[in-house]
């Protein structure tokens, strides 16, 4: 263990501990804000885990998020709370494996369209089921979870997701992902089972997203398909991860925090033009910062300090 | 000698084009065999089918007692087949060392960490590229990328090595070094099937040649004999010269 590694671990633990103490000082509104923010940070980390290295742009985020929320709503009266999360995670995993097996052969824009369609399909299925079988569209969720409880759970999930992506980036699996992102032919000819690696990562990323939905659901008290499966969630997650840089450990966090605050402010101040502004921001990020801010800053740095870079890169 | 690599009735169609047509040949363990033919005769397609990059339309490929045809490239790689590509495939944003580590980490050796790094350096030394170990692969010259690709293939610890015009584009000095390098591999027991146009290298390295034209095998004999075969001379020079 190098000193640098110990330093990073200590910093990580200190940040999580400080964040865990936050509810003791924050106002109820502050906690609500933090819950929303942590939710998006976790979603963005989960999204980047799969889509960053593989470059598969997924719009299925809300499919899994919604599955988590709905599982929580449907089973809230029959299952004890921690078990509820486990069941939600397992359902998310099952759906991800089936969907992954069917779609990971699709490339490029076909995958984007399919994942978008998937979220809509699941929403329609749930709506149909609720209307025709249950007879009601919405559901109430009454669970004995406090906002602080939700916050701490999301913090734990976010920390776990971050630690996982850190561990993966240093592992053999991380190298496999880099190679797959760079050249699938080389990857397969080197002995990497591409289908398995992609499926595994897709499933892991989906479980994180499902858990975010399941943990946040009690905050809403009332859910219906159009709330739980709102496609904006998928788009926001995508923009946040892209803004920070989906191929970097800190990228999703650095993208999610400012954008979440910006969107909160926009929806409070410009409720009618929110969607248009969102679209404009999206287009700007894709065109101006296709590799994320972190990459942009590093490149700018390298331009100003042309001599320093090669020495630094040399690990 | 019993065949190590056995190709039988191998066929590949691309739409209406039959790129490889009912091709059969075998290679014994430790042999270096040349796969020759004019451009477009289907040589690369044959290597692609052996390495699993393309599934055959028909026919079979077996290595020792294992059937390769029908397996995906990652499974074939784990059976001990490694290759280089006619158009080099480097992983440009990875370092030269990392490029080689890929084959060590996921190949038959499954090395990782410091052990993998040391082994990668050994392989780079073997191809004369140790001084570039820390560079990004994308910054290498084309020839150095070819060297790196060979180091990566060797790092997989292959039983069968497929080379697709690996010696093309080398200057005379580099060519001699390249020939010596491949000769050195033979003594370590690797079986090699090489697509090549450089006659000097073919004469120096290949005991036997399989020669194709328009997807069909037109000769399969010891090198000198195969190269003087009237059908081969016609294929290379065209009807009017024969
Ligand atoms: N992926 C492919 N799709 C369609 N045609 C191909 C493909 N690969 C090769 N071919 C065609 O098959 C024939 C043989 O090509 P190739 O095996 O590359 O020849 P060689 O390596 O002997 O020069 C050529 O006519 C080529 O155009
Ligand atoms: Mg060729």
Automatic annotation (TrEMBL), chain B:
Q: InterPro entries under this entry?
A: AAA+_ATPase, ABC_AA/LPS_Transport, ABC_transporter-like_ATP-bd, P-loop_NTPase
Q: List GO molecular-function terms, semicolon-separated.
A: ATP binding; ATP hydrolysis activity
The secretion signal range is: none
What's in the keyword line of the UniProt record? ATP-binding, Nucleotide-binding, Transport
A GO cellular component term found in this entry reads:
plasma membrane
What region holds the ABC transporter domain?
Answer: 5-239
Superkingdom of this protein's organism? Bacteria
One Pfam family named in its UniProt record:
ABC_tran
Name of this protein: ATP-binding cassette domain-containing protein
Please report the organism this UniProt entry assigns to the protein. Paracoccus litorisediminis
Lineage runs: Bacteria, Pseudomonadati, Pseudomonadota, Alphaproteobacteria, Rhodobacterales
């Amino acid at each position: 263990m190098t000193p640098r590694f110990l330093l990073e671990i200590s910093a990580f633990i200190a940040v999580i501990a400080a964040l865990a103490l936050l509810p003791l000082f924050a106002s109820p509104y502050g906690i609500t804000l933090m819950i929303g923010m942590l939710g998006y940070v976790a979603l963005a980390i989960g999204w980047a885990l799969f889509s960053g290295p593989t470059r598969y742009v997924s719009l299925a985020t809300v499919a899994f998020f919604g599955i988590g929320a709905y599982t929580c709503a449907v089973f809230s009266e029959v299952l004890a709370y921690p078990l509820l999360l486990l069941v939600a995670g397992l359902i998310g995993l099952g759906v991800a494996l089936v969907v992954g097996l069917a779609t990971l052969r699709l490339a490029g824009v076909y995958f984007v369209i399919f994942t978008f369609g998937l979220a809509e399909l699941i929403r329609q299925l749930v709506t149909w089921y609720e209307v025709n079988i249950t007879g009601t569209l919405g559901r109430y969720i009454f669970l004995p979870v406090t906002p602080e409880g939700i916050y701490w759970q999301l913090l734990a999930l976010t920390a776990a997701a971050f630690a996982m992506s850190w561990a993966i980036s240093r592992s053999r699996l991380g190298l496999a992902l880099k190679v797959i992102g760079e050249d699938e032919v080389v990857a397969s000819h080197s002995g990497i089972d591409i289908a398995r690696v992609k499926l595994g990562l897709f499933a892991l990323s989906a479980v994180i997203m499902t858990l975010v939905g399941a943990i946040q659901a009690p905050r809403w008290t009332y859910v219906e398909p159009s709330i739980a499966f709102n496609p904006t969630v998928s788009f926001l997650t995508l923009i946040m991860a892209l803004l920070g840089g989906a191929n970097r450990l800190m990228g999703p966090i650095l993208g999610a925090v400012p954008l979440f605050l910006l969107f909160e402010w926009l929806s409070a101040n410009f409720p009618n033009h929110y969607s248009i502004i969102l679209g404009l921001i999206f287009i700007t990020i894709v065109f101006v910062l296709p590799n994320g801010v972190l990459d942009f800053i590093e490149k700018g740095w390298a331009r100003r300090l042309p001599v320093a870079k090669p020495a630094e890169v040399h690990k | 000698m019993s065949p190590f690599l056995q190709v039988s009735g191998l066929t590949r169609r691309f739409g209406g084009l039959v790129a490889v047509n009912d091709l059969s040949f075998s290679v014994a363990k430790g042999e270096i065999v040349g796969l020759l033919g004019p451009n477009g005769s289907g040589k690369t397609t044959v290597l692609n089918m052996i390495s699993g990059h393309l599934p055959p339309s028909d026919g079979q490929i077996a290595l020792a007692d294992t059937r390769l045809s029908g397996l995906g490239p990652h499974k074939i790689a784990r059976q001990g087949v490694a290759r280089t590509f006619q158009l080099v495939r480097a992983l440009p944003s990875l370092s030269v060392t990392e490029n080689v580590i890929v084959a060590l980490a996921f190949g038959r050796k499954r090395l990782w960490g410091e052990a993998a790094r040391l082994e990668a350096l050994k392989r780079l030394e073997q191809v004369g590229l140790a001084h570039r170990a820390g560079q990004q692969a994308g910054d290498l010259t084309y020839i150095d990328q070819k060297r790196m690709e060979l180091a990566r293939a060797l790092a997989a610890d292959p039983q069968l090595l497929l080379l697709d015009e690996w010696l093309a584009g080398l200057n005379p000095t580099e060519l001699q070094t390249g020939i010596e390098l491949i000769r050195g591999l033979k003594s370590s027991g690797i079986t090699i099937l090489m697509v090549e146009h450089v006659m000097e290298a073919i004469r120096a390295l290949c005991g036997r040649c399989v020669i194709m034209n328009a997807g069909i095998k037109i000769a399969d004999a010891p090198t000198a004999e195969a190269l003087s075969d009237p059908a081969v001379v016609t294929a290379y020079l065209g009807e009017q010269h024969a």
